[in-house]
Amino acid sequence: MTLTITNPQTHFPASTAELPRIAILATGGTIAGSSPDATRTTGYQAGALGVQDLLFSLPQLEQVAKIQAEQVAQMDSKDMTCTLWQKIAFRLNAVLAQPDIAGAVITHGTDTLEETAYYLHLTLNSHKPVVITAAMRPATALSSDGPLNLLNAVCVAANPISSGRGVLVAMNNQIHCARDVVKTSTYAVDAFYSPEVGLLGWVQDNRVAFQRMPLRFHSIESEFIGAMGELPMVEVVSSYAGVSRIPVDSLVEAGVRGLVVAGTGNGSLHSVLQQALSAAVQRGVAVVRSSRVGSGHVMRNAAALDDQYDFISSGNLPPYKARVLLMLALQAGIPHVRLQSLFDRY
């Protein structure tokens, strides 16, 4: 929305002629899902509706911004690929480079939203607002959350105070940082949280407010802007009672470049898995310790693991986001000695 700012939390609509132009890049997901039964929130077809269908059902957007919409993909986000990440990033950077575009919104499925958001957070070449939104209930369901989430996302993207914060996630009236947000429920509309650090702000009734700035490097501060080419193979393994070393050994033989381990507690590792990961490091594989717990920090050098075995601590990055950062680092040719400092900065 083109706004007259009277304070950092409040804005008022200007004339239609002054409304900003917001690009919507649609990728499918539950927000575009369809089911023949409005009472069912499972068993629907994700991505069945196109972006024009979403816009047709939300005429209120015309009061917020001029919309430029395109369908980048039409899929269930459980099937997201690294190639599509790069396609979205390339298109997003091209759209944001247009002088008349004030910001962008990406509609996405919830299953891999946090991974896509973090990849774009690290590769975005703009200070303009970028907001990802989604839905936990399909578009055809009773009380679908998608329309309000999309309206709120456009409000956030159209507000100048959203600039310079990297990629944002607008869900359930809340605004989260792409680095911090994770999905925490299989069904609840308030499924997305930012453990430890909390949300960035909120949006309601066209009002947008922020209570903090992201502190880690992102977007134009990132050394991964415009990263192109095939991403190296990085996989996630887990530590648990009775774990075998077979997955690690098999992945190393398959040519994996990096491994992120979802350890117990503070990234601790079963002794069998620890031996396998140590052998992987000796063969040139980068190993990052994360945690399967869901919140908290994996402290560097817990029980002297990292110095002794040349492991890297993920800090408070969960395993699947740690994988994103490690892939980009290895693609960029970052030497092993710099990897820990990278995880400390991003």
Descriptive account of the structure:
- The model is unreliable at 1-14 (pLDDT under 50).
- The two termini are 31 Å apart.
- The protein is globular.
- Helix 3 runs parallel beside helix 8.
- The chain has 346 residues and is of the alpha/beta class.
- It contains nine helices and 14 strands.
- The longest helix is centred in the first third of the chain and has 15 residues, at 82-96.
- It folds into two domains: 16-221, 3-Layer(aba) Sandwich (Rossmann fold), CATH 3.40.50; 234-345, Rossmann fold (3-Layer(aba) Sandwich).
- 47% of the residues are buried.
- It has helices spanning 51-56, 82-96, 113-123, 146-158, 246-253, 271-282, 305-309, 319-331, 336-345; strands at residues 21-28, 66-75, 101-107, 130-133, 167-171, 174-177, 182-183, 192-193, 201-204, 207-210, 234-238, 258-263, 286-291, 312-313.
- The strands form three sheets. The chain has an eight-stranded mixed β-sheet, sandwiched between helices. The chain has a four-stranded parallel β-sheet with strand order 11-12-13-14, sandwiched between helices. The protein has a two-stranded antiparallel sheet with strand order 7-8.
In short:
With 346 residues, the chain is an alpha/beta fold. The protein contains 9 helices and 14 strands.
